[in-house]
Amino acid sequence: MTVVLALFVGALTLRFVRVGAAGLVATPGLTRPNYRGHLVPISGGILVVVAVLVVEAGRAVFGSLGVGDHTGLTLARSEMLFAVFGFGFLGVVDDLVGQGEDRGFRGHLRAFAAGRITTGFVKLFAGAAVAVVLVAAPGFKSGRTLIVDALLIAFAANLANLLDRAPGRVIKAGLLVYVPLAFVLGDSAIGIALAPVMGAFIGLLGDDLREHLMLGDCGANIIGATLGLGVVLGRGEATRVTIVILLGVLNIAAEFFSFTAVIDRVGVLRAFDRLGTRPERRQLFD
What we know:
286 residues, mainly alpha, 2% strand, globular
């Protein structure tokens, strides 16, 4: 029940932030062409950062008044906040100054070999560093465990970026991952910490589907990294190793295959991908 309430609070807070930040959403510098070439705000991820911060500030205030089970930030909530701000910041940098000519691991590495450091390369490198800090914070970890857990978070964040090529796609994919994870985590500290973040994305889904705004790299980074962190903090080693291998395979596959092309060839995936989108999106490949 606590998780459901946290989801609701996250979604409701995002909607309040969305209304209050109408001017920010409409800022010309925060617009980019979408898949149809229409200029759409890319501030969705920024709204999630603000909403999560407001929720945690509210939790702190109510906790100081003796409301709730905890009077201060739990370790899980502190970790989740750091993931939101760390990966969100790196995404904003790429959203604002990234040029987009060099894509994927190979593209960024080629640019680096040619003496150019892309914002994507900085995001990948710094994202790995943020992931290391996140997984090291709870206490001592062996070298193998530290690497596996950091890779899991970094791979999850990058995979979400790779999926974010169509309206609502990455949020819907994130919810498919989150639902079983939420049942496994239950009302644990990490389950309660993750719920407002996912609630904020639920509150943003309608705008994303209707192409009123995009998540941008900021939002995609956050949803991938926080789900990865949820797995790292809430699941055993065997599960984490299995998931990091799967994520690694998907990240490598993206260097050779287009996820969009694969989705459009598979009926079930295509139907789910277009669910709730504008008619133009549903008819684009028909």
